[in-house]
Design a protein that fits this description.
Distance between the termini: 26 Å
Helix content: 10-25%
Structural class: alpha+beta
Number of strands: 8
Oligomer: single chain
Shape: globular
Number of helices: 2
Length: 131
C-alpha cells in the first residue's frame, strides 16, 4: 500500500505535524478538504520557505490535508502548436472514479507544472478501456 498511496493526514491540532510539514516543504502538497479543480492546492516545492510558512499558518486548523508529494511519471506526447508537430515530455495524473462503489471511469491530465489542474496549463487525454 505504501508504494501506491501517498502519506495523507489532517492538517490540524498537532504541532508535530505542523513542524514536520513546515520543515520539509519539498516533501508535501496541501489540499483543502472540500474544493475541486485544484482550488486552494499548493505544493511546497513551488514556494519559498517564507511563502510556505505563511500559507501553512493560513491553512492550519482550517480543513486542509497534507499529503506526501510525488513527482508524476513523465512520458513524451505529440503536441500540435503553431502549425508544427512537436514532441514534448509531460507529467501525468490519472484519476479513477467510483460511483456507488463501482468503477465509473478514468480522467487523465498532463502538464508541466507540479500541480496539474484546470488552474494551471494542462491537457486532458482520452482514455480507452479494452476488455
Amino acid at each position: 500500500m505504501k508504494n501506491h498511496i501517498p502519506v495523507t493526514g489532517l492538517f490540524k491540532g498537532d504541532n508535530k505535524v505542523y513542524n514536520e510539514v513546515l520543515n520539509n516543504k519539498d516533501k508535501y502538497i496541501m489540499k483543502p478538504l472540500d474544493l475541486n479543480a485544484s482550488q486552494g492546492v499548493y505544493a511546497g516545492r513551488d514556494l519559498t520557505q517564507d511563502e510556505w510558512k505563511k500559507r501553512l499558518d493560513d491553512s492550519f486548523n482550517k480543513d486542509y490535508l497534507y499529503q506526501e508529494f510525488f513527482t508524476p511519471f513523465t512520458r513524451e506526447h505529440i503536441l500540435f502548436e503553431d502549425n508544427e508537430i512537436k514532441v514534448e515530455e509531460f507529467r501525468s495524473i490519472v484519476g479513477l472514479f467510483m460511483y456507488k462503489e463501482k468503477f465509473a471511469g478514468i480522467y487523465t491530465r498532463i502538464g508541466k507544472n507540479n500541480i496539474i489542474s484546470g488552474l494551471t496549463d494542462y491537457y486532458t487525454l482520452p482514455n480507452i478501456l479494452v476488455k
